[in-house]
Amino acid sequence: MRQTVPVRRTIAFLHAHPDDEALLTGGTIARLAGQGHRVLIVTATDGGAGLVSPASAQDADEVAVIRRAELAHSARALGAVGVTHLGYADSGLDGVGSSSTPGLAAAGGRVFAGVPVEEAASRVAEILHEERVACLVGYDAAGGYGHPDHLQVHRVARRAVDIAGTPLLLEASLPGEVFRTVGRAAQFGSRLVPAIPGAAIRSWTTAYRRRRELTHRIDVRPVLAAKHEALMAHTSQASGGLRTIDLLLRLPGPLFEVVAGTEWFVGPANPLSRWYRHPLQSLPPTPPGAPA
Fold it and tell me: pTM for the full model?
């Protein structure tokens, strides 16, 4: 049986920090936008606790301003119609922030990971309801690599679709087998070389989902130019060390296509084949007479 793509819809992507939208879902955003769907990006934090490259290192309070501007550029490159900022402070890797956390005062002294799920989910649900969103994209149960803000996105997205009655939730992920292999090797290396932070890399062994748990495999190679431009927009994250964006942008074209040309999601299981090939193929059909 041939799977059909639904009519044009509004899709919202909930992300933890600026640059996550390009890394995890940039190709999918560009693909949907290119097909005429209306794509919204919602970010929980301004990424103020993140590292920036030496060339971008300024006063700590300016980091959030820099990263928000980069996100706006990325969204335009991907074809998203707008960006909504929830305005919470970046929780950092420890999940609690500190008095020196950029943006903490503006966020009422609360980091995203510490906000009650019901509060944040209600705010996201308002967006879903007002924008008549047919599909919300969040993160998998592992929070990808386990960042506290990513774990909170997972919880908030699940609750938000329940509150709003949004028809479809997809959770961005990757096949975790490669991360488990690298994690085990890195843990072994940390025992031999104490300078390697064993505690920091233990999360690699539980990162993302097993390949058999993934339900959507999206080919984004036709829109890789847009994804590459979105990655390039995050200049504060694209130089000055071993950072994911930096490493991706250093890849030769053919290798970049192999590494970045597929995006993965967890959603409703596909009864027809192993993976859905379009992000909206698992969207329930619109009842007759209902608005599309």
Answer: 0.86
